[in-house]
Task: structure prediction
Amino acid sequence: MRETPKYFGVPHDPSSALQRTQSHHVRLKRYRIDRLLRRLIRHRTKWRQQQMDGFDRIYDLHKLLKGRKTALALNDILERMECSKATFHRIRRHMSDYLGAPIEFNRDQGGYRYMEGPDSGYELPGLWFNQQELYALLMIQSLLNNLSISLLQQELSPIKERIDRLLKKQSLDPELLHDRIRILGVATRQVDDHIFLPLAEAVARSKPLTITYSTRDSGVTSCRNISPLRMVNYRNNWYLDTWCHTRQDYRTFAMECIQSITDSKDTFQAIDSKTLDDYFNASYGIYAGDNIEWAVIEFTSDIANRVADELWHPQQKGELLADGRYRLSLPYNSDQPNELLMDIIRHGEAAKLIEPKSLQQQLIQRLQDSLSIYTD
Result:
């Protein structure tokens, strides 16, 4: 009987050779499929990137030409858009052919511009933003969510949906981006929708109001006729700057303490922005006043650099001392020193109030009162 031939000491089996051949073909086929899929993914990614770049290029060219009275030279366009001549002409043709952009070359001025005519003032169709502006809008959305005004969120939801669609067109996941932005508030106080929205309307339309207001500490309720001037979000809480017709003076109300709102028959007291800034920004904190004094605070070298980077007040004066400490001077309302005192206390032994001595005595008394509740 003829023996089965051996190769490298192993008996030759035709069936196993066939299996090895088939296995090789399967692996080869899988390799080719994988390579094809990777190539398709690369092409798709590149195509999406080109689409995304195209959106931004269109937007950039529109911003360059919009509102110009004179033509812009080609070299200036290429420099500002940071693109080649071929890319510019491709974008220009796309805008003219598909978006109806009236781009013309003006030979007298030697450059490109939007064509003048009865329909001048061309705008891109739909809602157009570049990537950076979309990211900024996402942050604004997160801020609005943090304000906890449910009815306002409902009104803005169509805009949010539109932004989400624009992000998806640029291959960006809006939910993932939302999850990566956090704006956290501390000690926020809720303002009811039936209070917030009428106040916002009254501020926008310069409409006088009558409000019922309950003070937070004493619980005393009063009725005030006001001209609402500004809504201020300060330290994650809402305040209303007003001209109070009842007191014939400026007043700031914490919006969560407003119980009811009705229309007023008083004439609205219009006040220009500079006058408002001069009054409400004259002293430290949210509550303004006329009795302005200057406080001097010194911070230890451990936190000097951090405090030096902080803006406590627009009129503050800061100085780094030779020993590494930081001296901060700022105006405050001597009738309302509470907020300044609390901000000094929160820095503990790292902050020392130097001037004025009267305010220093108030601070010492507060610290002693706080200590007494632990020593009694």
In short: The radius of gyration is 34 Å.
